[in-house]
Amino acid sequence: MNKLIGCVAVLAGSLAMPATAADLPEGKGKELILRACIGCHKPEELAVYRFTKDEYRNIVARMGERGAQASKAELDVIADYLFENFPKVEDATKINVNKATAREIAAGIGLTSEEAETVVKYRERHGDFRAWGDLLIIYGVDGKKIAAAKDKISF
């Protein structure tokens, strides 16, 4: 019994240990990340990020502007590596307000059809939302409904 408890404790400890640079998946771009990114970002942080290819490209470009030691071509390789290994996965239980129709938004987060249509029109004019709080500034949409549904919203 003590052996079993010891094995479980060792396994639990190994699961709780943070990822290291060695834990990053092999592939084109890993060495660039180790050189250009790990100075500011911890390897375990990279595994948590989940973005689309375009989002990764924008983020990595901003890092280049902030001083990441990589050329434009290398930054593109880094973005491709991140997308390939840590892609954004849609949560089927949430409504992606950047892609959903007005009808889907109304049904999914409890807005009236008029409010949902206002959200879609705002999105078409101003671009994608980044956080649920972005929806609070839309005139004609009840902010209390948005706040109540924030856990049902994705981007």
Summary?
With 155 residues, this protein is mainly α. Helix 6 crosses helix 7.
Could you describe the 3D structure shown?
- Helix content is 54%, strand content 3%.
- By secondary structure, it is mainly α.
- The protein has two domains: 18-85, Cytochrome Bc1 Complex, Chain D, domain 2 (Orthogonal Bundle), CATH 1.10.760; 95-154, DNA polymerase, domain 1, CATH 1.10.150.280.
- It has a two-stranded parallel ribbon with strand order 1-2.
- It is elongated.
- The N and C termini lie far apart (48 Å).
What is the highest CATH level, the class of the largest domain?
A: Mainly Alpha
Order of secondary-structure elements: HHHHHEHHHE
How much strand content do the residues show? under 5%
Number of DSSP strand runs = 2
Q: Could you tell me the mean pLDDT?
A: 85
Number of domains: 2
Proportion of residues in helical segments: 40-55%
Query: Span between N and C termini?
Result: 48 Å
Main beta sheet: 2 strands, parallel
Lateral strand order in the biggest sheet = 1-2
Number of helices: 8
- The residue ranges in which pLDDT falls below 50 over 5 or more consecutive positions are 1-18
Architecture of the largest domain, according to CATH?
A: Orthogonal Bundle
Shape: elongated
- Radius of gyration equals 21 Å
What topology emerges from the helices and strands here?
Blueprint: H1 2-16, H2 30-36, H3 43-48, H4 53-65, H5 72-85, E1 95-96, H6 102-109, H7 113-126, H8 143-148, E2 153-154
Parallel strand pairs: 1-2
Helix pairs in contact: 4-5, 6-7
